[in-house]
C-alpha cells in the first residue's frame, strides 16, 4: 500500500514511467483477485446453505466473477494514466454493485434459513403446549413449564418479526448501504 501511495504521488505530479504503471497494474489486479476470492467464499457459503434460490444466486456470483475477470483484461491492456484511471473507476463501480448485491443475496439466504427455523420452532411450541396440557390434566403443576413455553414463544415471535423486517429490506430494489446495515442488524437480532 505504501508503494501504491508513493506511485500515486508520482502520477499526480506527472512523473511516472512504465515501472510505476506496472505497479498500478499489479495493485489493481491484486485488488480484483481479493474481490474474486471474497465472492468465491460467498459462493461456497451459499452452496452450503441449501436455501431456496441458492442456485440462481450462485450463478449470479459466477457472472460477477466473470465481470471482474473482464476488468483484469482491461487493466492488462491499459497503456497510460487515463486508461488506468478509467479501469480504476470501472472496477470501483463493479465492486460497489457486487458488494451490495452480495450482501442482499447472503441476507436473503439467511432469512430463508431462519424462516425454516421459526416454522420448526412454532411446531415444537405446539407440541410442547399439547404435552403441557396433558400433564396439567393429570394433576401435574405445569406453571413453570407454561412460563418457559411463553418465553420460548416470545423469543420465536421476536425472531420472526426481526427476520421479516430484514427480508423487507433485502427484497427492496436498490436498498441503500444504511438500509442494508439495518437489515443485517435485524437479521443478527433474529439469530440471537
Kindly report the oligomeric state of this protein: single chain
Mean pLDDT: 87
| Sequence of secondary-structure elements | HHHHHH
Number of strands: 0
Strand percentage: under 5%
User: What shape does the CA trace take?
Assistant: elongated
Radius of gyration: 25 Å
Number of helices: 6
Helical percent range?
over 70%
Look at the helices and sheets and give the structural class.
Answer: mainly alpha
pLDDT < 50 runs, ≥5 residues: none
Keywords: Coiled coil
Coiled coil: 51-78
Q: Gist?
A:
It contains six helices and no strands. The protein is an all-alpha fold and 192 residues long.
Provide an overview of this structure.
The protein has 192 residues and is mainly alpha-helical. It has 6 helices and no strands. It has helices at 2-13, 18-49, 54-77, 81-137, 143-170, 177-191. It is elongated and about 90 Å long. The two termini are 38 Å apart. Keywords: Coiled coil. Residues 51-78 form a coiled coil.
Main attributes of the structure:
single chain; 192 residues; mainly alpha; 6 helices; 0% strand
Give the secondary structure arrangement, pairings included:
Layout: H1 2-13, H2 18-49, H3 54-77, H4 81-137, H5 143-170, H6 177-191
Helix pairs in contact: 1-2, 2-3, 2-4, 3-4, 4-5, 4-6, 5-6
Coiled coil: 51-78
Keywords: Coiled coil
Amino acid at each position: 500500500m505504501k508503494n501504491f501511495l508513493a506511485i500515486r504521488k508520482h502520477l499526480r505530479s506527472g512523473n511516472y514511467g512504465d515501472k510505476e504503471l506496472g505497479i498500478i497494474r499489479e495493485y489493481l489486479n491484486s485488488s480484483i483477485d481479493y474481490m474474486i476470492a471474497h465472492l468465491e467464499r460467498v459462493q461456497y457459503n451459499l452452496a452450503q446453505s441449501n436455501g431456496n434460490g441458492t442456485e440462481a444466486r450462485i450463478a449470479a456470483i459466477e457472472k460477477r466473477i466473470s465481470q471482474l475477470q473482464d476488468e483484469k483484461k482491461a487493466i492488462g491492456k491499459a497503456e497510460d494514466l487515463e486508461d488506468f484511471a478509467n479501469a480504476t473507476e470501472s472496477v470501483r463501480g463493479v465492486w460497489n454493485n457486487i458488494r451490495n448485491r452480495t450482501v442482499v443475496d447472503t441476507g436473503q439466504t439467511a432469512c430463508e434459513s431462519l424462516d425454516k427455523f421459526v416454522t420448526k420452532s412454532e411446531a415444537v411450541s405446539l407440541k410442547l403446549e399439547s404435552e403441557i396440557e396433558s400433564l396439567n390434566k393429570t394433576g401435574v403443576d405445569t406453571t413453570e413449564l407454561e412460563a418457559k413455553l411463553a418465553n420460548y414463544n416470545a423469543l420465536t415471535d421476536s425472531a420472526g418479526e426481526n427476520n421479516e423486517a430484514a427480508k423487507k429490506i433485502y427484497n427492496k430494489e436498490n436498498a441503500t448501504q444504511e438500509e442494508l446495515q439495518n437489515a443485517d442488524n435485524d437479521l443478527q437480532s433474529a439469530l440471537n
